[in-house]
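Milestone 3.1: sequence recovery, worked example.
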């Protein structure tokens, strides 16, 4: 039995070890390609950034969502958290990202049909989130520190 398996491997021209190594290298290559673009909030296309924001908000990953926001929006949320903390008698203090709610733009990514880029230049972009009933919500993004940042209407 052993001789027959060995002879079949020899007939194929590639030993099993070589095939295994090739699969491992292919797997590493695929992982590097997938991870090579970095976090979504660093992407160059404002539509991709907004789509990532909506997805992370739907999954309530608010610490991650914080990374998408403009400095002005973060400041407003930090002020809301400070006001809440000053009025709360007991309990742990809230952070700015804890003041975010899924429904700041949409309550679910299933609500929208597509994201359209209305206008864009080097410093800002205006996008429409087109809903299923053909109405839309306008979102503004600004370039901050070389990346697109979302201004929430807070």
């Amino acid at each position: 039995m052993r001789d027959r398996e060995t002879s079949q491997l020899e007939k194929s021209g590639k030993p099993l070890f070589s095939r295994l190594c090739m699969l491992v290298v292919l797997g590493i290559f695929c992982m590097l390609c997938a991870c090579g673009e970095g976090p979504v909030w660093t992407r160059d296309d404002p539509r991709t950034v907004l789509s990532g924001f909506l997805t992370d908000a739907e999954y309530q990953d608010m610490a991650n969502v914080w990374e998408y926001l403009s400095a002005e929006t973060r400041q407003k949320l930090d002020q809301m958290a400070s006001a809440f903390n000053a009025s709360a008698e007991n309990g742990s203090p809230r952070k700015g990202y804890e003041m975010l709610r899924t429904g700041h733009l949409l309550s679910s990514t299933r609500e929208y049909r597509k994201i359209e880029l209305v206008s864009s230049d080097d410093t800002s972009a205006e996008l429409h989130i087109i809903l299923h009933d053909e109405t839309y919500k306008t979102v503004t993004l600004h370039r901050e520190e070389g990346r697109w940042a979302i201004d929430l209407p807070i």
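The chain has two domains: 2-35, 44-151. Residues 44-151 form a domain with the Nuclear Transport Factor 2; Chain: A, fold (CATH 3.10.450).
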